[in-house]
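Internal ticket #5521
Category: modeling
Description: The requester needs a full-assembly model to guide mutagenesis choices. All entity lines are attached below as received. Residue total reported by intake: 674.
Assigned to: D.W.
Attached entities:
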Amino acid sequence: MTGLGVEIKGVVKKYGTLKAVDDVSLRVSPGELFGIIGPDGAGKSTLFRMIATLLLPDSGKITIGDRDVVGDYRDVRSVLGYMPGKFSLYQDLTVRENLDFYASVFGTTVGENYHFISDIYRMLKPFEKRLARHLSGGMKQKLALCCSLIHRPQVLLLDEPTTGVDPVSRYEFWEILKRLSADGMTIIVSTPYMDEAYKCSRMAMMIGGKVIKEGTPDDIIAGYNGKLWKVSGREVYGMLLAVKAYCGVVSCDSFGDSLHVVVRDDIEGLRSYLREKGYDDVTVEATKPTVEDCFIELVRDGCSDR
Amino acid sequence: MVLKYLLEKEVKQFLRNSLLPRIAIVFPLLVLLVMPWATSFEVENVNVVIVDNDNTALSGRLAHKIEGSRYFNLVGVVGSYGEAIGKIERQEADVLLEIPDNFERSLLTGRKIDYQVSANSVNGVRGNLGANYMNALVAGFAAEAIDEETGRVVPQPVEVIEQYLYNELLDYKKLMVPALMIIVIIIICGILPALNIVSEKETGTIGQINVTPVGKWTFILAKLLPYWVIGVVAISICFVVAWLVYGLVPRGSFLTIYAAAALFIIVMSSVGLIVSNHSSTMQQAMFVIFFIMVLFMLLSGLLTPVASMPDWAQYVVIFNPPHYIIDIMRSVYLKGGKFASNSFEFGMLGLFAVVMALWAMLSYRKQE
């Protein structure tokens, strides 16, 4: 199968005076697994609802293949699979009934497209007769994915599909997405989890309604400007407060059991400062930035620009 | 074909709800079994206190007659007006009858008698009817007494023979039962659809439907049809109860009332769906539909006659759909009205059904 490309040009959506989506332009090629990463309130869901024909943009244009989401919304709906952030299947219908229902409203049957979802549905099969409301979070997500895939869409929109799902189910879910993308489906997925960015072929970082960076995960990491230090020791929290109080520090964030620190000039100053404060067992070493570091840098630069 | 799947889904959801199917059956039963007794405007057991200034055999007989009447309940015969008014103030009595001291003498000598009836009109209907019943009773008693005592028949200048058409015994239940059937439809077919679409908005399922190619006409039709069936079942239950419990069968044909009910159910469910389409939370929808239902019930002639409303209210009634169905129901049940004799009402109901159903479909937006 061949997916369709998605092109977003200068899209703006305002709620009152708030610009939820502010002049966003993106181009997603057919068959890409494209991630949109950003914190809550960045405008991800609003953008998704506009691509999904549910919300009309104030200005700008979104096309899927050569179909305009406003003018040709009927055609768009038949090639699009959309899975909203909140679980929104019928809780009072069973797993199988939900699937049958969505297949039939798209004018197809489960039998016809079963092979397409069989990998995922196999995991749900034992619970076929269970009401959707009695499924676990991970199972609900898989069912929702099945329902949005049952009509064999060429473009799949997933709005925070892994939020609130346990790590194992998250992993499984991304494996499924990779397979679908390898089969040629265009997938746009949003997530607030930075570590999921590596699973995308390309990604855009969104904050405050704007796309602040776009590229492959490697591009984004390569674009990191500063020098990043990893500081680890026994008492991480005390150290975090101490480093933040140090005058030469640009940023300091905790990453698991260590700190990622950017300093203004010399790292030796911080080393001796920490020794003075009584943190003897501290190791300070240079480290490679992660997507999250890049995001923090971008947000910081964005703030100082304003 | 898609309509079939949508309907299947609606029916499954309705039947799986632990409460709704039961309400659709129990509610009409309860309303029809309980409300006709409670909404009667007949006044009985009016408490009477008598001030007997005459203290003769005849005034005593009057008191006995009052005591024996099914409308009255004698709470006491007292010697002074002040004492009697005290009973009214303490709400022990509703009506006060003062018998003058020359009662027996005047009656037997054919002179005019001035007696006084005072009624507590805090409850207007009770006070007014109580006083009227009392006047009728005293007048009847006086005529009887003169006949007996003097052996001559008092000439009555004009005799009024009252004849009530269609509801010969002035049975309020016969008037109220058809009205209560309409109330059942207003409530069931108003509230259920009003909460339906908005609940899909609250759970988010509407978003999933909106990205499918299902057309809005199909979608709304699939919402309308189940309520139409539920409404027809509910009113059928009403018909059975009216017949079994109150012995009330329409003098006209069932076909006529079913036709009217079918139209009215479309109107009511469409109103519910319109409210649902325009609301974003269940709370909003509930509040708005409640307001509409109260208007529908109070400004339609359902409970109070339209003719006694002020002019402006009578204009409002013209735009009130239940007004037409209630006219048809009463006409068919009590007068044996036919389709032809109610063609105007049918026309209006049909018009409302078309307009409301269209509105329901057009107000459903798949996009924001």
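Resolution: model delivered.
Comment from assignee: The interface with chain B takes residues 49, 52-56, 73-74, 77-78, 80, 82, 84, 86-93, 97, 100-102, 104-107, 147 of chain A (CB under 8 Å).
Ticket closed.
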